[in-house]
Structure prediction request, 530 residues.
Amino acid sequence: MSGNKQCAIVGIGETPVGKLHGVSTQALHLQASARAIADAGFEHTQIDGLLTNQPIHDPMRSYSVVLAQALGLHVTYMTDLALGGATPVAMAQQAAMAINAGLCESVLCVHARNQATKKELPNRGGDIRDGNEDYDEPYGFLGAVANHALMASRHMAQYGTTTEHLGAIAVAAREHARLTPGATMQKPMTIEDHQNSRFIVEPLRLLDCSLVSDGGAAFVVTSAERAKDLRQTPVYIKGMGQHHPHANTAQARELSELGGRISSEQAYRMAGVKPGDIDFAEIYDCFTITTLITLEDYGFAPKGEGGPWVAEGHIRPGGSLPVNTHGGLLSHAHMEGMTHVTEAVRQLRWDAGEGRQVDGARLGIVSGHGGAGSMHTTMILER
Amino acid sequence: MNNEAVKVDEAAYGRPVPKIEPEAAPYWESLRQHQMKVQRCDACQEWMFPPTTLCPFCYSEELSWHEVSGRGSVWACVTMHRAYLPAYQDDVPYNVSIVELEEGPRVWSNVVGVAPSDIQVGMPVKVRYDDVTDGLTLARFVEEQSG
Prediction:
């Protein structure tokens, strides 16, 4: 890393995921946080930085200060970050920057959500608008599926990518989820199951879409120096990148390539590694097409050839580049990218367990993706 | 043109309608007049959409409104099989496309008069103005036969 101090992720914490009845969004934040702090071997009084992301279901002004009080933290640096699914990786980056700036030494990053049971909880309302609604909603264009279906439309028209190619990504995610205790989806899935699932926004089918989940996860970032004498094998942040190419799909320069190319180039350069050095990838997979485009943008397959490449099985368990080793948003749970980070850490601690552990993993890459393919973050982690 | 000219009645359309910011009023008023106008920067001649007050290319604030031809092509297209609002329940399945106007800017719209499954990226289209309420006109598109 190009900063003065290298930083490491030294603690991870997760709540159960799925449908969690009778648990508030704040309670999930607290559980994930306490577990991450304990996993690091810290007392909560040793945490002096806090990064949060507004919970979608329960937005409030300045969530970080609400959570700091509830966790009994007295921090010298905190803020809410708002990059959608690009936030978790951005949190790790922001933590490293704050540590390097001398504002704090050990930063708790946490996010949780109640998307599956939100109707059972008080309705707090207050949706934040995206800025395009005046121009797309009157034409019946709404929702994340539609935005990502446009990406699939472009990719298919330009490169001949097929719905079966996307199905290979869904099937690989399910195979990984079946190796992951606690993953939401455990039922086997075939390409035929994918092809038989109904269109939601064509060309995307139900099984191209991520889950709707409750749960939360957290991780702790500290300086490499501080990491040396903690409980866990430190997982070092070696490279970081961001790129945010557009705000909305109509004004995007392109939708078959997103921010991942420039973001990953920055991260590879910082880490001094290349795509061929990476042992596994945790790729933000709100939809199968997101995984496909990101794998190409990250240099694992040439642009336009990602479909046939995933169909060859590279991303499956035991493949040349296992992708989303916990099952991802598609089959594990939709934790908005938090569990992509915690799973990468688990893999690099060699703690993922029989069948799922990538043998001898030393380098992993994690992506974040937010909005209408608008926001992208990358981090390269090393054991 | 002034803001008073554009009042849209959500109840009459039964679907979401734009809440019109001051800089966007000339756009919606142009649709009401059945002549689509889009902003172009006087300084660098770049087109821009949605309406704004600062050219993101050269930072000029001198933007003016120009009528466009209403011709273009489908840049990306999807078929909505699910109604994300009850108001769209009777409409599914329907097309939503991003149409690239021949002048360059792109807009969200519906290509109508063609089965959604027959709409493809690259298809030439031309505008059709739909007066959905007294105050609101939408710019939809129909296939333009080539040759």
User: Anything to note?
Assistant: The first strand of chain B starts at residue 37 and ends at 41.
